[in-house]
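Researcher: We're reviewing a set of sequences before deciding which ones to prioritize for further study. For each one, I'd like a predicted 3D structure that I can look through quickly. This is ABC transporter permease. If possible, include the structure in token form so it fits the rest of the review sheet.
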Amino acid sequence: MFAYYFQLGLRSLRRNPALTALMVMAIGFGVAASMITYSVFRAVSGNPIPDKSAQLFTPQVDSWGPQQNLKGGEPPNALDYVDAMALLHAHAAKRQTLLYPVQLAVMPDASHELPLNVGGYAVDDDFFAMFEVPFRYGGGWGALDDDARAADVVISTELNQKLFGGANSVGRTVNLSGHDYRVVGVASHWNPNPRFYDLFSTNGFAGLGELSGEPDFYLPVTRALDLHMYTAGSNSCRGALSYISWAEYTQSTCVWITPWVELDSAAEVASYHAFLTHYAAEQQHAGRFNWAPNVRLRDVAQWLDYQQVVPPESRISLAVALGFFLICLVNTIGLLLAKFMRRAGEIGVRRALGATRGEIYAQYLTEAGTVGLAGGLLGLLLTAVGVSGVGILFQPEIAQLARLDFSLVGLTLVVAIVATVLAAFYPAWRAAHVQPAWQLKSS
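Model: Here's the predicted structure for ABC transporter permease, in token form for your review sheet.
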């Protein structure tokens, strides 16, 4: 019977082409507006590391005091050198890493070639396991290499292609800003969006300079600090900015290092939070802080929410698009009601010949689903056009994340059909309750 009702629905589409066109356009434009904005919202609000987002935490320690803190008394969003080193040497977590962005130059072997500017991160050896960085060749360095301030480097697949033609370069040497580094690994393409691990120097989608794309390299943070590499990212300071040397810089209140720890259970989270509080209390007793301990420990989801990574315009545009879709559905209800009730005589005859109300429901809901399918196909075409033009409303680095993939295609068709069928319930109910006697008598 479904095939028969579907055939009747197709015939009905041709019977009233103007009315059908209005319904298809209402559904098509409504679902396209919703799917275009949803594609952007999905891209910016997704979980960048779903397997471990509940086990990764970024600690915050108040090194500025209540008079200079962020809004609401929040501690700074990164650590200064003193606090970062204290947390690193305490080893209070299963895995931990400090990181900050650096920008270097790859010195070519041939004299006629120019240096290549590259951007990457200074990290600890735990970085790769914590964030599940995939490798094409080799792997990360070890804890002993961190302690030894080894001249090791992990390079990206893209940089490996530029320098070594894509071959296995593990064990090869690359010169970065005048220092030779041994390649220990080549990372596969890995650039989570949003870039949750560095929301201090990026907004999650756009980096600074050479950090706007996938990182080109990772080197030991101990090595970077030993060579006095200044951050290529954000640097936030309070108080007098009179430092002129590396020693003064590392003893200042400037924050520029992002810490991350891996904690597998609620007990470990509570224990590490207690460690942070105890550390801040020690600094207060030592006279370095003259305020009560003020610490935070947020996981990935909480960190993204706190940093308001999802652009407000994506939420607003999604709400507006859903409102527009709702208006389209209300109009569709009226059009379907007019379409169905124009066939009241036909319905009366069917009921007089023994058709049940359930069969009337089935026929007209199937017909509505046919309208929804046609509207979904139109909406799919409009969505494809709209996704390619979202850069008009959103920043380019966000707009490029919106894609028309198979999941969005399926969702567009499902939403169009289901929404139209739901909108057809009241018109179908009116059609099913047509009184056969009245229609036969009037005929």
